[in-house]
């Protein structure tokens, strides 16, 4: 397909990646901090202790700064499906649009309505109603995450739909299987708990900073107890859901798993690379690419399939096929996909000409081959083009997992010393807490890089590649908007960062004076 | 319940939902209107603070309504979503950028060390107020004047023609911006007049809202003065648009063959053939005028409720005549048969049914928004309040 404008596809991808990565700097903090604030306010309402109210209001002021930029960077993502991925919007709009609409009706209104009470309603409504509003803001923001993650999970594991050749699109046939698909449930739980972990680290890090400076020690310790407990539970659960995610990836997106592990040649008793360095990976899939690695034998087979002896396919097996394991090569899949596309085309022609027999015959061929429909767009291309960027996926995955493991220890340590009332004497640990904040953000971004880069080139797994999903716009326009987003979002990020730091330096006392 | 409805009935129901959201959005654009008058009305910092805080408690509602409007359009009429958003790229991008810069401006405006300075954030609010209203108005006007795009489902399976396999294609290099200079059929005048009518409507609604929501004599007087000017200019543009709308050829759909054709005075016919819509339209316009009258001549502070509900009904009626009665709601002047109707652009029966159940939540949503609005606005904003409260914009 010489007519594919790859620069358009690349810039459209770059723009989506840019806006999504920016948005995700702020979302996890909103997801987690909203619950931490609600817990703190509950303690205030339960105990009547005004110190808890002060603590709640302080974290709420930081929440507000973050929330605003989260909203600002979020609006574009919903509309970008249309502006930059127009074909995608039609091809799966019948399924994908619904979660987005439900997100708006169910979650956004709840968030935006009750946040007004949360910030401005202290003296306008009763204590209990205010508390309820704070909980509803937390529930609303997490509900919005539910729906958008259901939509994302569906792209990774399309289910509950059927292709309608008349309308040339996929149509929903089972709402519940989309909502309750194991991939969706895992993705939702894994993502929101990662938000709780980040928010807990944020609260602990800032509290530690106050304790180091011997300011707001009570606020700091109480905040660490709440956030440490919340964070520890969340991080343990995060590891559990991470395991579930890996199993789902192994089942539905084997190429992504192979890229995550830099696994070129599959095997039984496949090793998990705990730490590794890859060379400058090229398309050559015949060789392995590790310069150095620390493998744990059999662990990948266990992680992916719960069985040390299970076969985990590598990139080579997936591209070239593996008869012994029943894996079809990409070249074969491209042929099947092309057959499906051609059959759909022939079906349309036959239908138009009123040739019912031919139409039925073509429809049958189309349906039999639909499973690899998206591969057909790569007819005439080198199948190696279907391999995702391995290095980025590998490193992002390993950064995410290493940091996730560290966070569990971190929470346990912080909680232990705070409950023992020794935290104020542990300067090193307090400083470590401050420096853990950026690590939490890095782990978040790394997680999304694994999820999204690792599934390239698929917008919808096996059914629609990016080259068939994009909007038909002259590339220059997308380049201009890319740089506009870069400039605007960077300026807003700097503003957010400066305001946040200033507010933290001022501390709760000064903030409440202003 | 919804399963038993025909596909057409569901499509009509979802056009109703879209119309309700669109109408609510135009009413809530008073926030944007207010943002264009911060300096016109507020001569001192404390006055500006009262204005910004009065709007600041409502901006997220407008914002959320826009997002839900987009989401609902995606879910119910995905072909519109893919064609318009992926084609009229610059119009939608300009609108979105305007909302991006708005979302941070309230929170960051007066915060210490805010990087860009208070004035910049206030300018962002002004830009949002201007662009969002004019462009949304002009974009809706293209529902009546048409746009230059083509839709061809065969492209999805055409791997040999030298074209990309993209179903919807915008056929001008300006990606929607041409709506403000397309001279054919004087489309630019119609588009701009609705854009400017929405802009001045948003401003006059903001005046009425401030009169109701801020307890300050000086601001009250200035609002009255502004209200008069905004109302006059609004009426000029609105009347121009309505008169043109009644006389232009419209994009009609043949009930049997589903072919789109040009019909003289189509939108006038739609009003006449749907008397309920005509009544809605007339009552809406009268209510808008009555709200203005109450504020200007009867010193009433309740004008916003009349003009607000009038705005809602008028916009609702405009959406109805755009989509109902065998009309193409998103017509193509490039290829008439590519025009979008509620029948050829909608989601499937299953999805519309599922979404219809979701729509049952809307009354509950409206109820709690109403309750919270009342709780928050029981007492109008005063100087004392904005001076004392520590979480103020």
Question: How are the secondary structure elements laid out?
Answer:
The complex is a heterodimer of chains A (514) and B (393).
Chain A lengths: L5 H42 L2 H34 L2 H35 L6 H30 L4 E4 L4 E4 L2 H5 L2 H31 L4 H36 L1 H8 L5 E2 L3 E7 L11 E7 L2 H7 L5 E2 L2 H6 L9 H24 L2 H14 L20 H30 L7 H27 L4 E3 L3 E2 L9 H39 L1
Antiparallel strand pairs in A: 1-2, 3-6, 4-5, 7-8
Helix pairs in contact in A: 1-2, 1-4, 1-6, 1-14, 1-15, 2-3, 2-15, 3-4, 4-6, 6-7, 6-14, 7-8, 7-13, 8-13, 11-12, 13-14
Chain B lengths: L6 H22 L1 H6 L2 H4 L3 H12 L2 H18 L1 H8 L3 H20 L9 H28 L3 E3 L16 E3 L16 H27 L3 H31 L2 E4 L6 E4 L2 H8 L1 H23 L5 H21 L25 H11 L2 H16 L5 H6 L5
Antiparallel strand pairs in B: 1-2, 3-4
Helix pairs in contact in B: 1-5, 1-13, 1-14, 5-6, 7-8, 8-9, 9-10, 9-13, 11-12, 12-13
Describe this structure in words.
- Chain A is 72% helix and 6% strand.
- Chain A is mainly alpha-helical and 514 residues long.
- In chain A, strands 1-2 form a two-stranded antiparallel sheet. A two-stranded antiparallel sheet of chain A has the order 3-6.
- In chain A, α1 packs antiparallel against α2 and α1 crosses α14 (427-453).
- By secondary structure, chain B is mainly α.
- Chain B has one domain (2-171, 180-388).
- A two-stranded antiparallel sheet of chain B has the order 1-2.
- In chain B, a hairpin with a 6-residue loop joins β3 (250-253) and β4.
- Chains A and B meet through α2, α3, β2, α11 and α15 of A and α5, α6, α7, β2 and α14 of B.
Strand order of the largest sheet of chain B: 1-2
The multimeric state of the shown protein is heterodimer
Order of helices and strands of chain A: HHHHEEHHHHEEEHEHHHHHEEH
Helix/strand class of chain A: mainly alpha
């Amino acid at each position: 397909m010489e007519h594919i404008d790859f620069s358009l596809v690349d810039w459209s991808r770059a723009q989506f990646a840019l806006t999504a990565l920016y948005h995700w700097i702020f979302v996890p903090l909103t997801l987690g901090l909203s619950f931490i604030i609600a817990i703190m306010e509950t303690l205030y309402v339960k105990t009547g202790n005004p110190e808890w109210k002060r603590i709640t209001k302080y974290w709420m002021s930081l929440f507000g700064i973050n929330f605003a930029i989260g909203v600002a960077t979020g609006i574009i993502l919903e509309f970008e499906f249309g502006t930059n991925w127009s074909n995608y919007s039609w091809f799966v709009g019948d399924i994908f649009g619904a979660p987005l609409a439900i997100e708006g009706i169910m979650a956004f209104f709840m968030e935006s309505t009750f946040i007004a009470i949360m910030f401005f309603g202290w003296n306008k409504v009763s204590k209990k109603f205010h508390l309820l509003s704070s909980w509803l803001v937390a529930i609303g923001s997490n509900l919005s995450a539910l729906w958008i993650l259901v939509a994302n999970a569906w792209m990774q594991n399309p289910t509950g739909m059927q292709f309608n050749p008349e309308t040339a699109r996929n149509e929903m046939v089972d709402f519940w299987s989309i909502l309750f698909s194991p991939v969706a449930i895992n993705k939702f739980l894994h993502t929101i708990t990662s938000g709780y972990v980040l928010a807990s680290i944020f609260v602990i890090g800032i509290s530690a900073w106050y304790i180091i400076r011997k300011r707001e020690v009570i606020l700091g310790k109480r905040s660490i107890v709440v956030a440490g407990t919340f964070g520890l539970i969340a991080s343990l659960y995060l590891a559990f859901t991470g395991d579930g995610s890996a199993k789902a990836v192994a089942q539905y997106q084997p190429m992504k798993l192979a890229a995550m592990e830099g696994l070129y040649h599959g095997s039984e008793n496949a090793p998990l690379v705990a730490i590794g360095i890859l060379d400058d990976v090229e398309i050559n899939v015949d060789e392995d690419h590790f310069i150095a690695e620390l493998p744990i034998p059999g662990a990948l087979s266990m992680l992916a399939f719960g069985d040390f002896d299970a076969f985990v396919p590598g990139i080579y097996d997936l591209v070239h096929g593996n008869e012994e394991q029943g894996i079809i090569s990409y070249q074969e899949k491209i042929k099947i996909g092309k057959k499906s596309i051609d059959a759909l085309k022939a079906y349309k022609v036959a239908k138009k000409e009123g040739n019912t027999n031919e139409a039925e015959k073509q429809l049958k061929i189309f349906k039999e081959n639909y499973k690899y429909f998206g591969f057909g767009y790569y007819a005439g291309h080198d199948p190696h083009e279907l391999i995702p960027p391995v290095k980025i996926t590998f490193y992002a995955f390993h950064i995410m997992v290493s940091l996730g493991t560290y966070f569990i220890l971190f929470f346990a340590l912080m909680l232990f010393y705070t409950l023992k009332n020794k935290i104020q004497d542990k300067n090193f640990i307090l400083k470590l807490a401050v420096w853990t904040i950026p690590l939490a953000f890095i782990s978040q971004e790394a997680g999304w890089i694994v999820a999204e880069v690792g599934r390239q080139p698929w917008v919808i797994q096996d059914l629609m590649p990016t080259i068939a999903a994009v909007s038909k716009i002259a590339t220059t326009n997308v380049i201009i908007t890319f740089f506009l987003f870069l400039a605007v979002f960077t300026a807003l990020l700097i503003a957010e960062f400066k305001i946040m730091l200033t507010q933290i330096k001022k501390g709760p006392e000064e903030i409440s004076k202003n | 319940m919804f399963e038993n409805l025909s596909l057409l009935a569901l499509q009509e129901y979802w056009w109703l939902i879209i119309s309700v959201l669109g109408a609510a959005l135009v009413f809530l654009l008073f926030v944007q209107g207010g943002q264009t008058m911060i300096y016109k009305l507020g001569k001192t910092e404390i006055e500006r603070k009262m204005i910004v805080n009065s709007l600041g408690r409502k901006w997220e509602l407008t914002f959320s309504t826009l997002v839900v409007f987009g989401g609902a359009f995606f879910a119910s009429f995905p072909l519109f979503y893919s064609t318009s958003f992926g084609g009229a790229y610059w119009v939608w991008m300009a609108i979105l950028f305007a909302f991006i810069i708005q979302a941070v401006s309230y929170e960051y405006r007066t915060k210490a060390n805010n990087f860009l300075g208070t004035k910049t954030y206030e300018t962002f609010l002004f830009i949002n107020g201007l662009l969002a209203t004019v462009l949304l108005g002009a974009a809706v006007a293209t529902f009546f004047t048409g746009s230059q795009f083509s839709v061809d489902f065969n492209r999805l399976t055409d791997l040999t023609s030298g074209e990309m396999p993209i179903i919807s294609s915008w056929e001008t290099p300006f990606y929607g911006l041409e709506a403000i200079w397309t001279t054919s059929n004087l489309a630019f005048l119609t588009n701009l007049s609705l854009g400017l009518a929405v802009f001045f409507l948003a401003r006059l609604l903001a005046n009425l809202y401030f009169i109701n929501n801020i307890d300050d004599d000086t601001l009250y007087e200035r609002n009255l003065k502004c209200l008069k000017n905004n109302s006059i200019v609004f009426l000029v543009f609105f009347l121009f648009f309505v008169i043109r709308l009644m006389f232009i050829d419209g994009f009609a759909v043949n009930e049997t063959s589903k072919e789109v054709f040009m019909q003289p005075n189509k939108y006038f016919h739609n009003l006449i053939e749907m008397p309920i819509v005509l009544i809605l339209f007339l009552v809406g316009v009268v209510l808008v005028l009555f709200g203005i009258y109450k504020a200007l001549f009867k010193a009433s502070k309740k004008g916003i409720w009349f003009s607000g509900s009038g705005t809602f009904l008028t916009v609702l009626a405009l959406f109805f005549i755009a989509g109902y009665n065998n009309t193409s709601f998103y017509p193509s002047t490039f290829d008439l048969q590519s025009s979008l109707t509620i029948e050829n652009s909608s989601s499937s029966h299953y999805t519309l049914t599922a979404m219809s159940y979701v729509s049952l939540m809307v009354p509950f949503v409206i109820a709690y928004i109403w309750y919270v609005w009342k709780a928050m606005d029981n007492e109008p904003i005063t100087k004392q309040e904005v001076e004392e409260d520590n979480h103020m914009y």
